[in-house]
Amino acid sequence: MSAPDPQWANAWSSTVSRAEPRLTHTHATVVSRNVRVSKLDAELLDGELTQMLREPVSNALSLVRPGLAETYRLEIDTVIRAVLFWLSVGSHRRATYAQGLQNLQYARTSGFARRVHLFGILSIGGPYAWARMVGSMSLAGWADAPHTSIRALVWRLVQRIERITKVAALLNFAAFLVLGQYPSIVERILGLRLVHARPQILHSVSFEFLNRQLVWHAFTEFVMFAMPLVNPMKARAWIVRNVRSVLRLPISVDQSVKELPEDVCAVCFVEARKDDTHAVNPYVTGCGHIYCYVCISMRMMAEADECSCLRCGAKVDKIRQYLQL
Predict the structure, then answer these.
(1) Burial code of 197-217, b = ≥16 C-beta within 10 A, e = fewer?
(2) How large is the average pLDDT for residues 205-211?
(3) Cα–Cα distance measured from residue 33 to residue 25, given in angstroms and rounded to the nearest whole number
(4) Which of 292, 285, 291 is nearest to 319 (CA)?
(5) Beta-carbon contacts of residue 90 (< 8 Å; ≥ 6 apart)
């Protein structure tokens, strides 16, 4: 086999040397796009870890004084986040606990320690100071101050800054979805980039677990939406009535209620277990039994068309005032 032509060898070496920076840049871009899901997962996991640690702290503070945890909830969350940040990123780990689980860490650049400290102060202390400042101004009535006063001008400036910050956060998130580099504005300003801690380890996503989580989340959202629309008393009465109808079971009536005197309200007896609770402002049902007006009307409102008489089990759809002759 003859030796390659030196002219071709020189041309090949020159082409490789020119293409290598572009190939390296393309590889880095692809990696940053692939890890965007891991970055979002790490942010969610850090939030879940804060919530998990908040519960025992709140329970301990509730033993000192009821309501203390809710009063200082913002301070509790801030302290927990600061401690977790200091024990992870601030202790030369270059990653939070959740980021470590996702095989991520902050890329070490010039002035990395100073940038990390600034990142902790701005991302943890900044929101706390801003929330407390806005809350104090709101409680002091700055929003209702005269339009031309200094307080009103400062309040409008604060509201404008909040709107600008929210728009900037939205634009930054859109840029993150496209480029996959900086999840937050503070990280973009400080130039803190998340990269793979061990590039040779590929991050695999369990789609089976994600599917279960999505289905469970959708189900809980549906239940939370549907529960206020369901009348539990009416649903219970409807289920009992239809089950008895299908199984051909006789109507069940409490014997003690059935044997009550005619002028005693069965609802009052069931709730208080006293057989001397005479009906107040008595009303009679279609089956001829007497109840307090408030008791039977509230029961009909709660159970609607499934309301039944406690004495005989008959359906109650209308009542009239009882007139004793």
Answers:
(1) beeeeeeeeeeeeeeeeeeee
(2) 62
(3) 13
(4) 285
(5) 116, 117, 120
